[in-house]
Amino acid sequence: MITSLSWLKHHLDTKANLNQVADRLTEIGLEVENIKSSNNNLDNFIVCKIIKSQKHPNADKLKLCDVDTGSGTLVKVVCGAQNARDGLFAVYAPPGAVIPKTNMKLKVAKIRGIESHGMLCSGYELNETSDKEGIIELNKKEKNIGDKYFKSTGEKTMDISITPNRPDCLGMRGIARDLASSGLGKLKKQPPIKINQKFKNPIKVSIKKEKNQGCGIFGSVYIKNVKNKESPDWLKKRIISLGLKPVSAIVDATNYVMFDLNRPLHAYDADKIDQEIIVRNSKKGESFEALDNKKYTLQNDMCAITDKSGVLGLGGIIGGTRSGTEFSTKNILLESAYFFPSPIRKTSKELNIDTDAKYRFERGIDPNSIKIGLDLGMCMILDMCGGEPSKFSIVGKVKDERKIITLEAEKFLKVIGFSITTAEIQKILSSLGCSLKISGKKIKVLPPTWRPDIKEDIDLIEELTRIKGYDKVPLINPEKENVKDTLNYKQKLFHFAQRSVASKGYTEAVTWSFTDSKTDTLFSDLNSQIKLSNPISSDLDILRSSLYSNLIISAKKNIHRNFEDLMLFETGPVFRGNKPGEQSTMIGAIKTGKYSRKNWIEKERDFDVFDMKNDALRTLIEIGIESSKIVVSNKTKKWYHPGRSGMLSLGSPNGPVLAYFGEIHPSIIKKLDLRTGNVLGFEIFLDNIPQPRKKIREEKPQFIVSDYQKVVRDFAFVIDEKYSSGEIISLVKKIDKNLIKDVKIFDVYQGDNITSGKKSIAFNVILEPKDKTLSEKDIDQVSNKIISTVQETTGASLRS
Amino acid sequence: MENFNQIESDILNKIKNVKDRISYETIKTEIFGKKGIITELFKKIGSLDQGQRKEYASKLNSLKTKISGILEKKLNDFDQSEINEKLKNEKIDVTLPGRTYFAGKIHPVSQVIDEVTSIFSEIGFSVEEGPDVENEYYNFSALNTPENHPARDMHDTFYLDHSKNLLLRTHTSPVQIRTMLKGKPPFKIIAPGRTYRHDSDQTHSPMFHQLEGLHIDKNINMGHLKGCLYYFVKKFFEVEKVKIRFRPSHFPFTEPSAEVDIGYKIQDGKIKIGEGEKWLEILGCGMVHPNVLKNAKVNPKQYQGYAFGVGIDRLAMLKYGINDLRAFFESDIRWLEFYGFDPLDVPTNYRGLSR
């Protein structure tokens, strides 16, 4: 909402200056977003004196003038006017100024070989006269060289952000009322209007009684024999200051009333109305051409203003061209109506129309403002265009839905934290237009009709706080007491995991929750994708079901910028359905390219599956899962390389899935044009990690250390390649859980000297006796048992 | 009795000939071997008479100690010079780079969530979460924003179905409702999370992050709200003085509602928070509307309190001087490494919020 001090002063008796008003507005909840000089351009036009005028050397009809603009140096201007002469006071427009008539921006230009710095203006060019001949001649007594020519411009305007609950402040009077209430002046009384209205409105108006009727009241006045014309300057300037374009006196008057009193009006050319006005629900397929020059086809049940020939306009939203006023209009019908907010909003949304009237009606117009709107609109039109008005015709009625609210001063103290007296309450609420009745501690309040937002006592408390000032609210320091743990188990896991993964060299990314359906499908088990009805772009059309989709897209962008050795991760939601809660929290991490590249100290090496396995495993251990409970197997998902990927699960290969890791499937890498052959990743399912019953410190056994020497023995077997290392390790460990501390594989070999289909596997077994030093005999016993168990279980042979 | 002085000088003369480890061994044998000079002298002890024996033994022992010491030093010298010789050839250029090392980073959004959580944890808030996908009721209606309310215009919403019932939450406020419905008052929670609006330009992104705050108890008034937010702003921006302005505003789910501005100025091209003549809006808040409490099955006659919502990304931008919101989500590795945080830089009260 744009306003100016002078317009506010039309309603408000105040000595406050612009900055005081702006500050106060912000303090009472009408936030001034900015203060602007209106129309800076007109400030460019300056009073000047032609010091010397001579003939242009290359053109007979042009003159070359030395002009004093008050800047200290003379300016050379080429001028075509006959009346340009020595000593003349004139109007100068510098380069950069925009000529109001032509909207042309001046530049330093060569005219017939001579540079002209700006221009001397005619009244025609400044929209002041229709006489095109000659430049403006000023009386030198009135003007000083260097002064701005347009004295009246330059009034600053304030742009106020009006919250949706305050439709009353979409008019100057409402803003003025708030300022007056806050103590910054007095609200002026509106002068009574006495106009002789002799005859009956000849145009019949009816509001059809039907379900979903969007119009409550339709008031109108018929004015005959008007002479429409351009508005006078003062009105044009007000209209321009609102950012609107002056059209004609009649239209400008309706707009003025809308912004002055928050009371939309509409003027019809009465001679174009076919017999009578019927306000009714539209029928699907009806259409009309609106004042924005677009044709609209209506649906059922939109509030249409119609006559015998069809739709004239959409009530409270936009009028139609068929009945629009023109300069030639002789008789008008001026409408001041009440339309209900909800249908206005529905219709304008469906048809995608946004107008100043719609904006106001959907927020709630004062249903009691029909008459004052007609009064002011009629007076202005009569003043400017003459004519004779009919009596007002007002049809329809709106139920007064206001309720009397009971307010107690104690409640204010309880909610806001400081006290207020009944007298203060009375003063503030009355100044805002409420009627009050005080009985003991209870105050009965009836809000004014222009405040649809005031419905209960808390609304009144807000009004009181706002006008008293939020700075009066006391500052109560917070208590430093915790009732509950800040984070629950899952949240702790999230935070630990995030930093655990980052500490392994991964850089955290935060990517959209939506992604490209074509990419996501490559990483998804879902039968159907979760589509957005209105995606922001076609490549962000679904909710992601995997963290890989966006990570891979991000990796690709970085790789294409030549950052090919990447480690990225994200911790966040993935979705499996479109209902609330059908989401889980995951970690996704990817690596691309090489671990070391062109390095003097290390051999070049690609990132590999064991990097991923380590990172996933270490992360799980760091967030508190005991390593012995994590089982590795080769069950994985379709988006991994089938032979180079694995799964980590809890307790057994069939336990809850903790993570997948491995190479991304080569065909996906190819499809996505990643420009690197080596892309690996891991996914951790944070939601699958059960909260342990006991804390780690409670679970830990006692610390017992053996005083006896540990013993290490090496073994090598040739074994069928189908046996995984993991199987052999757990097989050996089981042989003597007390004695065998660890089994470490140090060599795996397939190739020369080994039968195909078999592999050689070498490991050492660490024996840690608890109660005695192991003798050679003891060691042999265990060794033999290891050999026989492995041989019997797997058919392996000992390698010599 | 032997002339020990003569013997000693003879031995020392011999030792002079020790040039390397081989001559050392030869000469050591000549002195201490089975038939060595010193060994022979010891053998004589038995044959000496009582009177001489004591003096003889004493002199011999001190000679032995002296010679042993000299020989030992010889040996050490060999070791030392061998090591020195080796060191001459064991020189490396330590300015060469070491083995590959990847330093990971934490995203500014995560860091700021941790900072904010740490601050609110100090004053008794715990963390709640809610789903990213919401239905119309929790996102709007339960929050006193009925259908066709103009406030809905300010939330350009992503929908998941054509009846516009399922949507991506446009703010974290639905967590208020969910938290209250599943528990019993008092409530003192914060809820950080992803939020979504159908909007994209320099300062808007279709996804961003909010932090919701809710404190409901029997006597929580607007003064508590003010105190809580003053505390938060001072802690977060790590400033002693802070200029804050509470300005009346409107949200359907709070009443009275306020927007909070902080004072700032631009100094040497950088934003300085907490002082100066300019105002910057950082959050919205207010006393929870009785209708919201009713919808969440909390009796507004018994309970009251405040709620607030802060833009996390915006906080990060202000504190860490980041200009473009969209860059947060573009995963440009250069941006992530520049603005990211060390994983060990965990914001805590006792170690400090930021380094």
Give a topology summary:
The complex is a heterodimer of chains A (800) and B (355).
Chain A: E1 2-4, H1 5-9, E2 12-13, H2 18-27, E3 31-37, E4 46-55, E5 63-68, E6 74-79, E7 89-93, E8 98-99, E9 104-105, E10 109-111, E11 114-116, E12 119-120, E13 156-161, H3 172-181, E14 186-187, E15 204-207, E16 215-224, H4 233-241, H5 249-261, E17 266-269, E18 276-281, E19 287-289, E20 295-297, E21 303-307, E22 310-314, E23 332-339, H6 341-351, H7 356-361, H8 370-385, E24 388-389, E25 393-396, E26 405-408, H9 409-416, H10 422-431, E27 435-439, E28 442-446, H11 457-468, H12 489-502, E29 507-508, E30 514-515, H13 517-520, E31 530-531, E32 542-543, H14 548-560, E33 566-575, E34 583-592, E35 594-596, E36 605-606, H15 609-622, E37 630-633, E38 640-650, E39 657-664, H16 666-671, E40 679-685, H17 696-699, E41 711-720, H18 725-735, E42 740-749, E43 758-767, H19 776-794, E44 797-798
Parallel strand pairs in A: 15-18, 29-33
Antiparallel strand pairs in A: 1-13, 2-14, 3-13, 4-5, 4-7, 5-6, 7-12, 8-9, 10-11, 16-23, 16-24, 16-25, 17-23, 18-21, 19-20, 21-22, 26-28, 27-28, 30-32, 31-32, 33-34, 34-40, 35-36, 37-38, 38-39, 39-40, 41-43, 41-44, 42-43
Chain B: H1 4-16, H2 21-32, H3 37-43, H4 50-89, H5 108-122, E1 126-127, E2 133-135, H6 136-139, E3 166-168, H7 174-182, E4 187-196, E5 207-217, H8 222-237, E6 244-251, E7 254-267, E8 270-273, E9 278-288, H9 290-295, E10 304-311, H10 312-320, H11 333-339
Helix pairs in contact in B: 1-4, 5-10
Tell me the major beta sheet of chain B: 8 strands, mixed
The shape of chain A, in one word, is: elongated
Number of strands of chain A: 44
Taking all Cα atoms into account, the compactness measure Rg of chain B is 42 Å
Number of helices of chain B: 11
| Coarse structural class of chain A | alpha+beta
Number of helical segments of chain A?
A: 19
Distance linking N and C termini of chain A: 93 Å
Roughly what is the average pLDDT of chain B, rounded to an integer?
Answer: 91
State the end-to-end distance of chain B: 82 Å
Shape verdict of chain B = rod-shaped
Beta-strand content bin of chain A: 25-35%
| CATH topology group of the largest domain in chain A | BirA Bifunctional Protein, domain 2
- What's the Cα radius of gyration of chain A? 42 Å
